[in-house]
Each structure stands twice: as C-alpha cells, then as structure tokens.
Input
Amino acid sequence: QVQLVESGGGLVQAGGSLRLSCAASGRTFSNYNMAWFRRAPGKEREFVSLITRSGSGTSYADSLKGRFTISRDNAKNMVYLQMNSLKPDDTAVYYCAASPGLFRAAREYGYWGQGTQVTVSS
Output
C-alpha cells in the first residue's frame, strides 16, 4: 500500500508553468503505475496522465499532450507533473493516484492523494 501527498499547486498567469509533485510513502512504490487526474469546478474528475512502474512508458489525455509531462523518481518515491503553457481551463484540483494496473479510469485507482489546487488566471 502507499500514501500520496501532492504539492506544488498555486496561482499562475496564463502561459506560465508549474511543476506538481507527489510524494509517496510505502515500501512498494515501484510496484505501482502512477497517474494524475484533475477535477475542475462543476466538472467530473478527468484523466491527465499516467506513467508506468519503471517510468519507461507514459500516456496523456489528448488535449494535454505536448503541454504536460509526467515523470517519476523511484529512488525518491516521487512523481511529478510539469505543466507548461497553462490555460485558464487548466484550473482544477490535481490528484495523484496509484494502481497496480494500467488504467485511465479513476475508478481503477485505489490510492489517492488529497489534491493540490492549480489556478490559472487570464
């Protein structure tokens, strides 16, 4: 099992960048595929990105590919989401999640962080 804590959110101007971090505690971090999801005001939680156990494979929501980059450092039990060219529509609470499988659906993830707020002003 693993505990997840996100950080790095904040207020940024449109066109700016942020890097979110997810710190994991647990002895089996490298056994999990990791993902980022987000939930904007008035919208359902949506898939952002995932990364495989070793970090060799990644996947992104089509609308975000090219702007966001997911990475992980298993030695440090950390997952990151680099967000560039941010838009007001990116405003949301961003969540880190862990799963033993490869999924894009939130229901398949058994471990979640508390979320970190990202606000992009116009």
Notes: The chain has no helices and eleven strands. The two ends are 40 Å apart (CA to CA).
